[in-house]
Automatic annotation (TrEMBL):
<dbReference type="InterPro" id="IPR001387">
    <property type="entry name" value="Cro/C1-type_HTH"/>
</dbReference>
<feature type="domain" description="HTH cro/C1-type">
    <location>
        <begin position="7"/>
        <end position="61"/>
    </location>
</feature>
<dbReference type="InterPro" id="IPR010982">
    <property type="entry name" value="Lambda_DNA-bd_dom_sf"/>
</dbReference>
<dbReference type="Pfam" id="PF01381">
    <property type="entry name" value="HTH_3"/>
</dbReference>
<protein>
    <submittedName>
        <fullName>Helix-turn-helix transcriptional regulator</fullName>
    </submittedName>
</protein>
<keyword id="KW-0238">DNA-binding</keyword>
């Protein structure tokens, strides 16, 4: 079930109208409508408000395909060294988060090998997304 279907289902299970959920979550009823129809995507803050209003964890609302994680924001200083400048909550597709976590556990040689394998796989059209199809998995 995708986010839109999950939001609709949980709202109905809780016997809430769109208007009442909007009031509890402090968002507009129009936004709830757009989200349930899949016409717009809520911000992380809105997802957290909805989860609190529905009394469910964000993971249940997002489903198995997505998760919220603390992401770090980096920049380069004058010497071209990477430095952390902040932290922000990010929504990650679960598969992407799993891949990033595994990649970060590798040493430099292992990371280089993964990049090499990825470049090889990308040469095979069988594994590439169709650029004209925005509805493909975003994992």
């Amino acid at each position: 079930m995708n986010f839109s279907e999950t939001l609709y289902t949980i709202r109905k299970q809780k016997k809430l109208s769109q208007k009442k959920l909007a009031e509890i979550a402090n968002v507009s009823q129009a936004s709830i409508n757009y989200w349930e129809k899949g016409q717009r995507t809520p911000s992380i803050e809105a997802i957290e408000k909805l989860a609190n209003a529905l009394d469910v964890p964000t993971s249940q609302l997002l489903g198995e395909d997505y998760m919220i994680d603390d992401g770090f924001i980096f920049t380069f200083d004058n010497e071209n060294d990477l430095k952390e400048v902040g932290q922000k909550k990010l929504i990650f597709p679960t598969k992407r988060k799993t891949l990033l976590d595994a990649f970060s556990q590798l040493n430099t040689d292992g990371q280089d090998k993964v990049i090499e394998y990825t470049e090889d796989i990308l040469e095979n059209p069988k594994y590439k997304k169709d650029p004209g199809n925005d509805n493909q998995d975003q994992e």
